[in-house]
Amino acid sequence: MINVGIVGGTGYTGVELLRLLANHSQVTLKIITSRSNVGTAVSDMFPNLRGRIDLKFSEPSIESYRQCDVVFFATPNATAMHQVEELLAAGIRVIDLAADFRLKDLSVWEKWYGTAHVSPQSVEKAVYGLPEMNREAIKQAQLVANPGCYVTAVTLGLLPLLRHGLINPATIIADCKSGVSGAGRSASLGTAMCEVSESVKAYAVKGHRHYPEIRQNLRQLDARADLVFVPHLMPMIRGIHATLYADVVGDISKVQALYEEYYAAEPFVDVMPAGSHPETRSVKGANDCRIALHYLPDSNKLVVLSVIDNLVKGAAGQAIQNMNLMMSIDEATGLHGLGFIP
Amino acid sequence: MINVGIVGGTGYTGVELLRLLANHSQVTLKIITSRSNVGTAVSDMFPNLRGRIDLKFSEPSIESYRQCDVVFFATPNATAMHQVEELLAAGIRVIDLAADFRLKDLSVWEKWYGTAHVSPQSVEKAVYGLPEMNREAIKQAQLVANPGCYVTAVTLGLLPLLRHGLINPATIIADCKSGVSGAGRSASLGTAMCEVSESVKAYAVKGHRHYPEIRQNLRQLDARADLVFVPHLMPMIRGIHATLYADVVGDISKVQALYEEYYAAEPFVDVMPAGSHPETRSVKGANDCRIALHYLPDSNKLVVLSVIDNLVKGAAGQAIQNMNLMMSIDEATGLHGLGFIP
Amino acid sequence: MINVGIVGGTGYTGVELLRLLANHSQVTLKIITSRSNVGTAVSDMFPNLRGRIDLKFSEPSIESYRQCDVVFFATPNATAMHQVEELLAAGIRVIDLAADFRLKDLSVWEKWYGTAHVSPQSVEKAVYGLPEMNREAIKQAQLVANPGCYVTAVTLGLLPLLRHGLINPATIIADCKSGVSGAGRSASLGTAMCEVSESVKAYAVKGHRHYPEIRQNLRQLDARADLVFVPHLMPMIRGIHATLYADVVGDISKVQALYEEYYAAEPFVDVMPAGSHPETRSVKGANDCRIALHYLPDSNKLVVLSVIDNLVKGAAGQAIQNMNLMMSIDEATGLHGLGFIP
Amino acid sequence: MINVGIVGGTGYTGVELLRLLANHSQVTLKIITSRSNVGTAVSDMFPNLRGRIDLKFSEPSIESYRQCDVVFFATPNATAMHQVEELLAAGIRVIDLAADFRLKDLSVWEKWYGTAHVSPQSVEKAVYGLPEMNREAIKQAQLVANPGCYVTAVTLGLLPLLRHGLINPATIIADCKSGVSGAGRSASLGTAMCEVSESVKAYAVKGHRHYPEIRQNLRQLDARADLVFVPHLMPMIRGIHATLYADVVGDISKVQALYEEYYAAEPFVDVMPAGSHPETRSVKGANDCRIALHYLPDSNKLVVLSVIDNLVKGAAGQAIQNMNLMMSIDEATGLHGLGFIP
After folding, report:
1. CB–CB of C279 and B203 under 8 A?
2. What does the pLDDT look like over D195-204, one tens digit per residue?
3. Is the ipTM value over 0.90, yes or no?
4. How far apart are CA A150 and CA D81, in angstroms?
5. Which fold has domain A2-125?
6. Is the pTM of this model over 0.90?
7. Domain map of chain C by residue range?
8. Residue range D149-310, CATH number
9. Is C305 helix (H, G, I), strand (E, B) or coil?
């Protein structure tokens, strides 16, 4: 059994880790920490866990982490970087669900996250946890930077295109739609039911933190890649829908077969038949990414539709997928839940 | 392995059976029938099943049912009664998720369902599939009548009270709130997003088919029992919240302990701490029923709050729980999924 | 023209007052105050007002109030009581949308609102602003206590019954369902989209502040009246649905005609045909209350369904109705907006 | 007073016309027709109209139309074209809310609408009813083709850009998000609450009927214009959010001032401050279009955000605006309702 700890499990990625790990056959949940909730049963905060998880939130400490083989940081940005080296030194594998180790260029990180990075050496060690790009490296990793939710949907949508040079990499537009849970669990007017239900809006058009992360991924595939990224808030809880546009170069006639082949062995990427329109609900609660392709001959553009559950493949599910890889067990363990229809 | 068939799996209880059975370790899904969709892959109708269930809808026939140990009828009311005897005669166990075998009094059934019953003998054989009332009988049953969704929430909420004679059984009011999926999957103006979202209404105040079924359950516990039952349609997909009112008789001071004890061994009934307010989302996707008690001394009334997911404990999950009992495997197999927060 | 001021217009009742007053033909909006937003244009906070209301939030002061004939307090509870006497002394009419002047029994008020009342004399002067009960007194009032939202729906639903002694007044159960806007506009986890959407729950079963207010109204009609009141939170923005149960005494056969007659002259109460099921959306944005009656002969209970928009007839619309009465203009001025379907 | 008739008022544009016309000071509603509902009171179908509109649906006939100065066709596509000439010959002005007279090129119309056009001469007479493009022609029109909802949002968003040649007109991408009411009022699985709530999807990526209509508008402004148009279905009732992308050519530095000036005199177009993110709810129920501009220097793209209520500025409200222009009364009469927050 893998002994697991969770740091800062009071947010939505935390409770989603708990929901998924409760049914993970190879995991023993040892500790979950929260400074401000020490002594509270997690099932008092999240009643869906009643009768299934009887842990209490505890004070974070290196001693308690030592019981763990793997520790997930489900903390705010710029938190894990303060503690990670101590855990690594103790031989504990770490998966950070926040952004601390995602960007290799520290000056870019510091610009977008507004603070100095205190652990450049851990950034260097960190493996970017997108299995579809980095599976072998993840297997060897001590520290995994779990990708952002938008970033996962967009990167998986574009990966085969860029690998095969089928689009002009400077013409990418990513018009992305996210459920409200992407904004986290906090008392905020901006995520109140009466403010966001029955309404749609774009936000952060001038710049969103996932932009440099997407760009970093795309440039690993093609150094010329860049994109326009506009996120939108949807009146729903879970789900991301990325609508991706790019100018085609070269022969696009086999693009459907190419995607199907590219992702054939991937346990969590589903290329739908040409002309499909994936719905976010088809992955609600599941670790799947569904992709569909549409070529528009009049404009010579390819439109890629890519959907995930932001809390699963976009956060907690992918983190568990990474853990499975790091611990050399079946990559899909604990991730067999299907999407919810209805 | 248990060989399973599903008759009429194109509705919401059908796809929910598929979602749950896909992760049931003891089940092999053999057939799923739908006369109007023969040859269609179920995953083409329900994309959440893509890559997980590769069955096609087939023509119903006794030959194909013979491959099955258990057959679920996820058909409209008054369908299973036409076929059940043939299956039982072939030694196949049957679980009907519709209402054909729920009411023991055929004249009552015929009044509420508006048609003659063609199989009185199967009604006689049928065991009412509420494990918390009938576990031992279910284990021996060849034919199980799976309870209605409202009925499950209300009966579980009142069971210990009536068993212990703590309320006046003639004073029960069940004010019930249901998500829209309870109305089934069909092209109907009455369940259109623009008709039911952002609105609440009562319906069928004069009489709902679940009323005689609840009354039948309650009268098994106390022959004087009766109730007022008012269902309401909620602007959400899944979930039932039953708010139950009754006049207290006798000593109510130990009611909390009594409920906890009564349900202590039940795998799927959770008595919350006194004064709790269960949320339907805490059981979304899960086979759980959560109950909380509030005694109001001024009016000497007990208020019981009982929540389930209408498609799981109120339909497909409970059907699988019944199958597990009938097949003598662990009652909770395949039913470990937790509720969704958020 | 009536010169109007609004104190504390940054909540949902404030913006709803603005939405309605913007189209009130007899009103000039003079000031809107908010200590924490002095200088901000109201249309910067509420973009629906752009181009229609060009006021800025200003510092509250008796000097600015002197420009006004009527001042609405859209402030938190226990705010207006500190300022009201000064305004009244200056000859300004006051309508309080909070609870400061609703309960005549100060000890009850202090128990439920958790603080000492600083202005008993203004409570004495205040007229309870339910036009269907107190129209003539409102016309003469200097100070109106605008009713609570639940209270309006419940009282209007029961008024003719109690006036005519048709129910046992000690058997009333009010099972009420409210949209989230009833909880106000604030940064709070409890009203976050991800916490309340796709879920239903009861709350405050042990006691809600609207309980003593409803009881006070009912006891004006029948001194023996009491009720059980259970509020529930609905996954929608606006709307209250009250489901009211009571034991019938006497001859109920003419109850439909009696309601129709009772409310025939009321501009904002609509008695639907017997057997109807009013939807909250039919009053969304409108100042209407729709009521339907169902007599259940088996249990000899009457079920009354009563719906309002909590922000209109339950708050801002009713406040304007009161203002119209106080200022001797047509009671319906500015309140002609119809409900939204869809 | 203007005597008004509505043909086919049983859909969402029909009831929205009724909601708005009920408060139009210059209109007398004379008839509303529906072959399948003759004799039914409109307020029985739409209870929000109870007490405000007491018309019954009647049989369509030229005799009854003769009472009207203006007739709105709120009928399915390919309906008005069969009747329009008879009405025009009788001197009745006609506004078609469907698509019969929107496309000037009949071969394009016939391709997208799948039937032969029976009234080419009326297409020739018809004025395209977008006041911001065609105000003077609308004033003289006998027949107005009311624009499509997506078309309105996109065209208003791009109008000043194309007039001033500030973008490359061949690079336009319109990623559009619509509430479900855009799909109309009908019994359809595709618009069921359980199918579309809590989910987002693109649809009709290969081609949507509003594409040729948008293109026709844009090419009136610049003959080289073309676009990629991808509509998406949102889990909400009302609202369209168009996110528009285009490559900038020339000097973009004054684009904000240019938009403000361009729309300064328009009663229903609101250019928000630079960098704003308009919400669809800010126009819910209102005839407004709100627009915000974002220039992205890295990619040299302009992003225009444009929101409307699809049933108001996208249908019934714009139709009334057109009627006001045709009848030479104040263009904004009856259209003063503000958006709903919350």
Report:
1. no
2. 999 999 999 9
3. yes
4. 47
5. Rossmann fold (3.40.50)
6. yes
7. 2-125, 149-310
8. 3.30.360.10
9. strand
